[in-house]
């Protein structure tokens, strides 16, 4: 059987960054990839999607952004090109078209079975992504068959949906972006909104993600985050990487005619029932946004950055209609499609190692998988820091995780 | 009671935080059943008693039995021995949110001096009378207004109230559909 020291699963930004640091330490390894490099970015994204993060943040180890539009946002083709370029530059030993079908422990490491053969290794880095499958609530099963149901994995653009109204469920980044795009296509759109994270696209003249970076919010370590499980499952902020850098909050959506309703609570007798608690989640999001802006202002004041940015500003509270509807007849023809923008989850079904909890989350401490020496993870939300969720967060994470991995190998010799 | 920097709202937050940790690993112990028994008196007057409940894997008993009288007002041609059943929903919601405000304030180190919630439930009674089939039986809307005196900014007080809704059993029960089964024994 083939043997190597480390198997990296996944050739996205995370797996390739791991490979970069493994090569730096001359640790023998292979990167297994089910499809092509940057596979999810190639095949599992809708057509108009752009990164939320500005281009200057699209940096990888040893590869700063060197394009001409630092404040723009990459389209998917550009992300693929970025990651392809990194793979080529680091000469990562990627084996494309190789799907891992099982991973199990052995006496001296791990046994990796793939559709192209088997590999024995001492350490494994899971970099197969956080968004392998759309997460769709059980209540979808009760939606009448006359209504088309799509997930962000199926969705490519408005033209593909049947004519008629659309109910978009979920108001994180995906939900607000798809609601806006579908509304622009002329369709009536209802947006079902649970808890969400509101952010302005720009604040005091700078990209809000510049503030997250500069003020140090993103550098907060996982062991300093007050409620880590919550931080790790938090939906992505209501942002879109549009060239005009406008905010895509609920006010922006309702101004275009999108109708807000509460969280989708149940389907009963062909009717979708919505929570009457919309105002509560909206005021929580407004309060949390203001709290975040306060921390930015405090940081700007204490660091003398006030002169480099525009004056502090506050945004209009989210407008909620005096009465939102609590039910929608799904058989009445008002809505032809339900879009489930209800999040994503990783796929660990191929792991034959007991490292996943009952909710499907990997048990790990900063990317060091618990109770399974030699097993590591990269590329998950808030893995070691708040910025771990984003492409540029991988550099510090991958360096530190490979440090730990290298220490593990040394101890075993 | 627990004090954080001398803050005391009479809520033992540490016990609640400990329970949260303990129950994370023991979901079966977290399964509670609340019970009440309603006895019809006469007309639209009834008496409900509450004493026992199930939780932490065992039968539990309140320190004392509580009795609640429900009736309807004289404008409903009733004798008004007690409040209307739908008013008990306001009782439940107001007390649940107030408890939440106190707990969250304790956890955040905010000393409360007074908390008062005024609740209004808008009710079109044509629904229950069967006068208009387009009118629902229940509330059309509920409005809760908090007056809070505390050592905190308005923003912090608004955050207390928002968080208390997020963790309120009754707020959830009123704003989200609940499966209700009614049978004849």
Automatic annotation (TrEMBL), chain A:
The keyword S-adenosyl-L-methionine does not apply. InterPro entries: Auxin_biosynth/cation_transpt, FAD/NAD-bd_sf. GO terms for molecular function: flavin adenine dinucleotide binding; monooxygenase activity. The keyword Oxidoreductase applies. Keywords: Oxidoreductase. This is Pyridine nucleotide-disulfide oxidoreductase. The lineage of its organism: Bacteria, Bacillati, Actinomycetota, Actinomycetes, Pseudonocardiales.
Automatic annotation (TrEMBL), chain B:
It holds the Pfam family OsmC. This is Osmotically inducible protein C. Coiled coil: none annotated. It comes from Actinophytocola xanthii. InterPro entries: KH_dom-like_a/b, OsmC/Ohr_fam, OsmC/Ohr_hydroprdx_reductase, OsmC/Ohrsf.
């Amino acid at each position: 059987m083939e043997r190597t020291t480390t198997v990296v699963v996944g050739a996205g930004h995370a797996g390739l960054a791991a490979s970069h640091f493994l090569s730096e330490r001359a640790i023998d390894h292979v990167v297994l990839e089910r499809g092509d490099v940057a596979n999810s970015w190639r095949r599992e994204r809708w057509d108009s999607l752009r990164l939320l993060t500005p281009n200057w943040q699209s940096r990888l180890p040893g590869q700063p952004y060197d394009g001409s539009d630092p404040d723009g946002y990459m389209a998917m083709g550009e992300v693929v090109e970025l990651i392809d370029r990194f793979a080529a530059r680091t000469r990562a030993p990627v084996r494309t078209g190789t799907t891992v079908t099982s991973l199990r422990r052995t006496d001296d490491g791990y046994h990796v079975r793939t559709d192209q053969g088997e590999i024995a290794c001492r350490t494994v880095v899971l970099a197969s992504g956080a968004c392998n499958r759309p997460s769709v609530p059980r209540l979808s099963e009760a939606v009448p068959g006359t209504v088309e149901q799509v997930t962000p994995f199926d969705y490519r653009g408005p033209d593909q949906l049947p004519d008629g109204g659309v109910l978009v469920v979920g108001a994180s980044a995906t939900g607000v972006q798809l609601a806006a795009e579908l509304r622009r296509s002329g369709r009536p759109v209802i947006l079902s909104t649970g808890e969400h994270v509101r952010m302005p696209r720009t604040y005091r003249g700078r990209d809000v993600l510049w503030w997250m970076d500069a003020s140090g919010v993103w550098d907060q370590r996982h062991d300093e985050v007050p409620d880590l499980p919550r931080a790790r499952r938090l939906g992505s902020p209501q942002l879109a990487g549009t060239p005009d850098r406008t905010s895509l909050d609920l006010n922006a959506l309702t101004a275009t005619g999108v109708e807000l309703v509460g969280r989708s609570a149940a389907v009963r007798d062909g009717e979708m029932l919505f929570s009457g608690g919309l105002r509560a989640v909206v005021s929580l999001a407004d309060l949390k946004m203001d709290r975040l802006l306060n921390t930015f202002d405090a940081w700007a004041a204490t660091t003398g950055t006030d002169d480099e940015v525009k004056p502090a500003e506050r945004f209009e509270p989210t407008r909620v209609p005096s009465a939102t509807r609590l039910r929608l007849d799904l058989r009445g023809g008002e809505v032809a499609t339900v879009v489930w923008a209800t999040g994503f989850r990783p796929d660990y079904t191929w792991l034959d190692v007991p490292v996943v909890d009952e909710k499907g989350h990997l048990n790990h401490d900063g990317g060091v998988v618990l109770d399974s020496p030699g097993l590591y993870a990269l590329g998950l939300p808030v893995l070691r820091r708040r910025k771990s969720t984003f492409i540029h967060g991988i550099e510090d994470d991958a360096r530190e995780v490979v440090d730990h991995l290298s220490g593990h190998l040394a101890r075993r010799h | 009671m627990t004090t954080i920097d001398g803050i005391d709202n009479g809520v033992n937050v540490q016990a609640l935080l400990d329970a949260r940790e303990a129950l994370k690993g023991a979901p079966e112990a977290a399964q509670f059943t609340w019970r009440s028994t309603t006895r019809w008196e006469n007309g639209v007057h009834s008496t409900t008693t509450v004493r026992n409940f199930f939780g932490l894997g065992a039968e539990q008993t309140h320190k004392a039995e509580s009795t609640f009288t429900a009736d309807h007002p004289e404008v409903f041609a009733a004798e008004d021995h007690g409040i209307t059943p739908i008013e008990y929903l306001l009782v439940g919601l107001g007390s649940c949110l107030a408890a939440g405000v106190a707990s969250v304030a304790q956890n955040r180190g905010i000393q409360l001096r007074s908390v008062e919630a005024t609740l209004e439930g808008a009710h079109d009674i044509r629904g229950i009378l069967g006068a208009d089939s387009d009118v629902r039986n229940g509330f059309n809307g509920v409005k809760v207004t908090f007056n809070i005196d505390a050592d905190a900014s308005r923003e912090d007080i608004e955050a207390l109230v928002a968080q208390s809704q997020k963790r309120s059993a009754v707020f959830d029960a009123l704003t989200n559909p609940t499966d209700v089964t009614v049978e004849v024994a």
